Amino acid sequence: MLPGFEKDEVDFLSLLSEANRRRVLENSIKAEYLPGAIAYHPEMPPRAFVLDHGLARAYVSVPDGRQATCAFAHSTELIGGTAIISHLPRIVIQVVVKSTLTSLDLPRVRKLAAVESQVTTAVAMHLAVLVRTSFRLIAVRTLGDIQQRLAYDLLDRACRSQLEVGRLEARATHGDLADSIGSAREVVGRALSRLREGGIVESAPGLVRVVDPLRLATMVRAFAF
């Protein structure tokens, strides 16, 4: 097994030698994105980023406005790695918290991946972990514990709300959340109380405001399978 492959996250640049890091980052552009910004959508030219710091969501949508979350990207991870070796799926990249992303010179990195085995391996490790984390995101919705299922549900709702009204909030009653995660109102109420006590959310009747989306994302990521 390759070093770092057993983990469920990949610090992409750390997998490269100093020389290859310089090559990969040559002509790259670092930019700061505000919460709710769209870093990539399917009408844009293909792009690949390194998420230096922050949290981003990848989702797909259909014309009637419905969305499905595909993945969450965390600090130091590569976003858009499929563009290096093939083509990107029709996804949208939403910045969830204030984040810094480094946009790579895609033609250059593609050429490097074709001749530098270390770069190819780093991209392959990223894609392998992406598959595992995507499986986790599917499984946690039904197999995670109450706190993990609620964390995912709130984060997913809040991200969609952020695009509509600019705030990370879930407009849902305890009953709505219980129905969504397959639990009981009382159980959801207790789980929400723990999140409030931890400073992760704030709530009012019919509304849950997400204060710390990074911690919600970490709870989802903690689901083991």
Overall description:
The protein has 2 domains: 129 residues, Sandwich (Jelly Rolls), CATH 2.60.120.10; 78 residues, Winged helix-like DNA-binding domain superfamily/Winged helix DNA-binding domain (Arc Repressor Mutant, subunit A, Orthogonal Bundle), CATH 1.10.10.10. It contains 8 helices and 11 strands. The two termini are 19 Å apart. The N terminus is likely disordered.
Widest sheet: strand order? 1-8-3-6
Number of helices: 8
Low-confidence stretches: 1-6
Mean pLDDT metric: 93
Count of beta strands:
11
What Rg, in angstroms, do the CA atoms define?
18 Å
Distance between the termini: 19 Å
Shape, principal axes of CA atoms: elongated
Domain count: the total is 2
Summarize the SSE layout with pairings.
Elements: H1 18-25, E1 29-33, E2 38-40, E3 49-53, E4 55-61, E5 67-74, E6 78-79, H2 82-85, E7 92-95, E8 99-103, H3 106-115, H4 117-143, H5 146-165, E9 169-170, H6 174-181, H7 185-197, E10 201-204, E11 207-210, H8 213-221
Antiparallel strand pairs: 1-8, 2-7, 3-6, 3-8, 4-5, 4-7, 9-11, 10-11
